[in-house]
Amino acid sequence: MSLISPNDVVAASLSAAGACLALSIPANFLRRFPLWAFKTYGRGAILLPLLSAMVAMLLVRIALAGQINSDGGLALVAAAAFLVLLFVSALLRFWLGDYRKS
Q1: Which of 23, 26, 35, 91: CA 20 to 30 A from 5?
Q2: Is residue 57 scored above 90 in pLDDT?
Q3: CA–CA distance from 46 to each of 32, 50, 89, 100 (Å)?
Q4: In this structure, is residue 67 part of a structural domain?
Q5: Which pLDDT does position 62 carry in this prediction?
Q6: Do residues 76 and 59 touch, judged by C-beta distance below 8 A?
Q7: What gap in Å lies between CA 102 and CA 96, rounded to an integer?
C-alpha cells in the first residue's frame, strides 16, 4: 500500500505551478532574450548554459546513484541553485528593462 505524504502534495503543486509559469512565457520574450543576454553579458552569456548543462548532468548522475546527501551532492545542489538564481535575475533584468519598453 502506498501512502501520499503532505510533502508529496507540496512537491506536486510546486512543480505544477512551475510548469504553468514556464508555459505562460510569451514566445517573443524567448526569441529576444538570447540576443539581449549576449549583448549585455558578452561571452559569459554563452558559457552559462554550458555550465548549467554540466552541473545538471552531474546532479542527475549523483541523484541516480543515491549520493545526493553526500558532500559532493550537496555542493552540486548549491551550484545548481546559484546558476538558477543567475538565470532568473537575468530574465528579470531583461523583462523589467528592455522587454517592457517595446
Answers
A1: 23
A2: yes
A3: 15, 7, 16, 24
A4: yes
A5: 92
A6: yes
A7: 11
